């Protein structure tokens, strides 16, 4: 998913963490990474991604991050 950014410089604009359950080191979780949206803003392209972590089908944490890439 991030292969297209291999030689690019991205600026992390925002991180939102929503925690529903405690998470612990050493436990196994199911994780799903999703691109939420991509849009052009002036000379930048904004990318939004969400990482969802679950344990036994129970939502534990969502981490949403917004990145900017300058268009040349």
Describe the structure.
The chain has one domain: Thiol Ester Dehydrase, Chain A. A hairpin with a 2-residue loop joins strand 2 and strand 3 (44-55). The protein has a four-stranded antiparallel sheet with strand order 1-4-3-2, with no helix packed on it. It is elongated, with a radius of gyration of 15 Å. The model has no long low-confidence stretch (mean pLDDT 93). It has strands at residues 11-19, 30-41, 44-55, 58-70. Helix content is 0%, strand content 64%. The relative contact order is 0.35. The protein has 72 residues and is mainly beta.
List keywords for this structure.
single chain, 72 residues, mainly beta, Thiol Ester Dehydrase, Chain A, 4-stranded antiparallel sheet, 4 strands, 0% helix, 64% strand
> What is the assigned CATH homologous superfamily?
Hotdog Thioesterase
CATH architecture: Roll
Task: Determine Rg (CA atoms, Å).
Answer: 15 Å
Biggest sheet descriptor: 4 strands, antiparallel
The parts where pLDDT drops under 50 for at least 5 residues are none
How much of the sequence is in beta strands?
Answer: over 45%
Distance between the termini: 21 Å
Quick one: how many beta strands? 4
The CATH class name reads: Alpha Beta
CATH T-level fold name: Thiol Ester Dehydrase, Chain A
Number of domains in the coordinates?
1
Shape: elongated
- Discrete helix count: 0
The sequence of SSEs as H and E is EEEE
Helix content: under 10%
What is the mean predicted local confidence, pLDDT?
A: 93
| SS content category | mainly beta
